[in-house]
TrEMBL record:
Purpose of the protein: Converts o-succinylbenzoyl-CoA (OSB-CoA) to 1,4-dihydroxy-2-naphthoyl-CoA (DHNA-CoA).
Gene Ontology cellular component list: cytosol
Matching Pfam families: ECH_1 (PF00378)
SUPFAM superfamilies: ClpP/crotonase
Protein name per Swiss-Prot or TrEMBL: 1,4-dihydroxy-2-naphthoyl-CoA synthase
Gene that specifies this protein: menB
Gene Ontology terms for molecular function: 1,4-dihydroxy-2-naphthoyl-CoA synthase activity
Entry-linked Gene3D superfamilies: 2-enoyl-CoA Hydratase, Chain A, domain 1, Lyase 2-enoyl-coa Hydratase, Chain A, domain 2
Pathway: Quinol/quinone metabolism; 1,4-dihydroxy-2-naphthoate biosynthesis; 1,4-dihydroxy-2-naphthoate from chorismate: step 6/7; Quinol/quinone metabolism; menaquinone biosynthesis
GO biological process, one term: menaquinone biosynthetic process
Cofactor(s), by name: hydrogencarbonate
Record: residues binding substrate: 64-68, 77, 112-116, 138, 144, 241, 256
Record organism: Kurthia sibirica
Alphabetical list of CDD domains matching this protein: crotonase-like
Chain positions of site Important for catalysis: 77, 241
Length: 266
């Protein structure tokens, strides 16, 4: 596969996957998702790989979710290579491969982790953040939602009240605040982020791969039902993206204006 949207590197047993679209703050489009799935599957299949690091190119953003500029008026994202009937992004498959790869995945959050980009770090096994990183969901502001791992699993980590606050208010949280709520494992200076992520990955690589695999699947098993919620949520999202209400959120973001959802309150 030609890797236009990501960088993929394998070194000393560690696979590093970098979302490489800094011009749009590492927002993902259909091709980005497919390339991420490809890299995670390759790392899964490679017996020399013991841990995976997911990060973003540059200093500004880890990932800011779906690329609003490739979203069309009706039905979601403008991408023909995905599975039919969905939102035009194989995001559900990406979530599953991050959860199911039998090796720990570390998110090295180097800037904004927002919207669908925030969900990616939530699903990773561990998160190390740069001091300047900012975290948050934007769905209800831009006419979108992630009712599965992005919200139900988030609530398992930070608690129900906090998860509701994060989604209902769509505010941004600092790396220190996220560490306080158990959403980030460690905060380091920006220039030390990749060194620390590599350090943790090296420690993991020295451990029993079978023990790590069974532990990961054991942690996952307790929240496996959330996959069903994800399916329902993505199917609902495909319908919601066809509405004027959802479209108002996308248009307001593109046009850099205040969003107006008042007329959709019935
Ligand atoms: C990251 C933010 C807060 C940065 O703000 P700041 O510093 O004011 O910079 P901007 O001028 O806003 O941004 C700089 C340039 O980058 C572009 N850009 C930023 N984010 C995106 C994006 N997601 N798509 C396309 N372009 C983006 C800006 O447009 C700007 O470009 P220029 O210079 O040309 O104007 C701020 O940028 C921000 O809030 N970004 C939007 C984040 C966002 O809303 N993402 C989508 C979130 N969606 C959801 O939450 C839905 C739920 C979900 O998780 C999901 C589930 C399934 C499938 C998809 C998604 C999904 O993520 O959509």
């Amino acid at each position: 596969m030609q890797l236009t949207d990501i960088l993929y590197d394998k070194h000393h047993g560690i696979a590093t996957i970098t979302i490489n679209r800094p011009d749009v703050m590492n927002a993902f489009r259909g091709a980005t998702i497919q390339q991420l799935i490809y890299a995670f599957r390759d790392a899964w299949d490679d017996v020399k790989i013991g841990a995976v690091i997911l990060t973003g190119a540059g200093q500004r953003a880890f990932c800011t979710g779906g690329d609003q500029k490739t979203k069309v008026d009706v039905g979601g994202y403008d991408f023909n290579g995905g599975l039919g009937g969905g939102i035009g992004l194989e995001i559900e498959q990406l979530h599953l491969v991050i959860r199911n790869i039998p090796k720990p995945v570390i998110a090295a959050v180097n800037g904004y982790a927002i919207g669908g980009g925030h969900v990616l770090h939530v699903i990773c096994d561990l998160t190390i953040a740069a001091e300047h990183a900012k975290f948050g969901q934007t769905g209800p502001t831009v006419g979108s939602f992630d009712g599965g791992f992005g919200s139900s699993y988030l609530a398992r980590i930070v608690g129900d009240k906090k998860a509701r606050e994060i989604w209902y208010l769509c505010e941004q949280y600092s790396a220190a605040e996220c560490q306080e709520m158990g959403l980030v494992n460690k905060v380091v200076a920006g220039e030390l982020l990749m060194d620390e992520a590599l350090n943790w990955a090296q420690k993991i690589c020295a451990k029993s791969p079978t023990a790590l695999k069974i532990l990961k699947y054991s942690f996952n098993a307790d929240t496996a039902n959330i996959q069903g919620i994800s399916q329902l949520s993505m199917a609902s999202l495909a319908l919601f993206y066809k509405t004027d209400e959802s479209n108002e959120g996308r248009e307001a973001f593109i046009e850099k204006r205040a969003v107006n959802f008042a007329k959709f309150r019935k």
